[in-house]
Write a structure and sequence with these properties.
A hairpin with a 4-residue loop joins β7 and β8. Strands 2, 4, 5, 6, 9, 10 and 11 form a seven-stranded mixed beta sheet that branches. The protein has a four-stranded antiparallel beta sheet with strand order 1-3-8-7, with no helix packed on it. It is mainly β. The chain contains no helices and eleven strands. The radius of gyration is 14 Å and the shape is globular.
């Protein structure tokens, strides 16, 4: 059974930093992309950042320069370094992975989410 476990969320003051981690287990296939999404209260889930197996990255335009995604393929783990946090970054952050083959749910596998709260 594929499981994604996120960690590293919490409460931080504006201007602070947090590092999220997401470790995937039960992986028997090659992983294509790993990424982070977030959902704030009353808003739709939105892309934060993606990283391919080869290390190519894609960020939400509004987050470029503050957030950095990285990945350890050997550990099936993806990280999100978040700097200069703002109150509007407050959301539940979800980890996602998409296999390289056609297995599992159409939108990939999801973690349970980790809360990030940025106080002003």
């Amino acid at each position: 059974q594929v499981q994604l476990v996120e960690s590293g969320g919490g409460l931080v003051q504006a201007g602070g930093s947090l590092r999220l981690s997401c470790a995937a287990s039960g992986i028997w296939f090659s992983i294509n992309t790993m990424g982070w999404y977030r959902q704030a209260p009353g808003r739709q889930r939105e892309l934060v950042a993606l990283i391919t197996r080869g290390g190519s990255t894609n960020y939400a335009n509004s987050l470029k320069g503050r957030f950095t995604i990285s990945r350890d393929n050997a550990k099936n783990t993806v990280y999100l370094q978040m700097n200069s946090l703002k109150p509007e970054d407050t959301a539940v952050y979800y980890c996602n992975l998409k296999p390289s083959v056609v297995v599992g749910p159409p939108d990939g596998y999801w973690g349970q989410g980790t809360q990030v709260t940025v106080s002003s």
